[in-house]
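Narrative progress, year one. The postdoctoral researcher (J.K.) led the effort to move from monomer predictions toward full complexes, under supervision of the PI. The following entry was the first complex the group processed end to end, covering 400 residues in total.
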Amino acid sequence: MLIRTIIVVLISLMPIGAFAMHPEAQYGGTEEISNLDVLVTRYSDETCKECHEEIYAEWKESYHSQSVVHSIGGLRNFIVHGVEKGWNAEITKEHLMRCMDCHAPQLQDASKSLIRDVAELIKKTVDAQDEDAKEKLAKLNVNCVICHNTKVSIEKNLKGKPKPGVYYGPKGKSTTWLKKAGFSATRAHGTERSAAVTSALFCGQCHGMYTPPDGDIIGCNTLYGSYQDAYRGNGGTETCQDCHMRAKNRGHRFPGAYEKDIVKDGIGVDAQVIGLNIKPGTWIPTIIARVSLTNKAGHRIPDG
Amino acid sequence: MVLDVTAKTDRGETVPIGKKEYWEIGLDLDGNHRYGAWQIKEIVDLTLPPRKTVQERFMAELPEGTKSADVDITVTYHPSKKITLDVFKETRTVTF
């Protein structure tokens, strides 16, 4: 115990070079995990909230923090009606990842048995209203580590895989003295500037049609296609981040279809109404209304 | 997204003037409407396209003898079956 305490203290005193030893940095590991808590720890955002308190609080309000439990009914239907009844098969990792590649990318590291456990938890949550199961599943989500590390390397071949313990952001800010010493890091973690994070394609990885390895297309949502072809294709220039994060300091709350404020921003309405009497002699009171709706969002309204 | 235009006459009748729904229909390859993400392979797009203005025109007759009517123009948004957001509401009074 004492030895462990000393090691922990030593690690926390080591500013750099120790990233690979931080618990939250263990997702660089390659072995498959069979225990949900171990998997959650590998991608843990527990430490992030100590320093990035405000961002953490915003993210917690967003649907990214509930990306499994908020979609639980659909996920359950996929397992029960899609795989078990429709395909007459037992759920495999390849099956479940066609949802979880976006809803909980952490599961890429799960063993076959953990995948089956997660599928059971999903069924229990819906069919038995099991709050325990729901609580466990709530730990799987699109968190800080997923966006600032796992999903950040879009150009894998050109730029390589994301490095464990390094968080990729729009600026790649460093603590001054570390920068002077030639490191790109803060006291807690490495940092690197990433053009990908600020791109629409970064969001597009999860916000569009999806082709799993077996080619059996998933049409969960089609938003990114609309962004590229209809918005950019018609001269639109803003990115997802411009409207969903930077505008009105929306930050990491990522408001969308459930929030009146942004929905109102997305639609312009012009209404013209006249009343007249038609059909001379009979004189029927008649109303003519012309309404025009302008979509000011960056994609079709609504989507999905 | 739903656009609704409804008139309320001076005599208390409610008369629908027009209604339009904007949505996406997910289809499987047999052309059947589907809800499951794993079933949907194509969509029929009845939504509002970005950077475009869609114009609707409705015309409706009111009961004979109507002297005036309040016309409500509302736009509502339905992110899920249980939730309705009131995005736009205006009332115009017309007289005959």
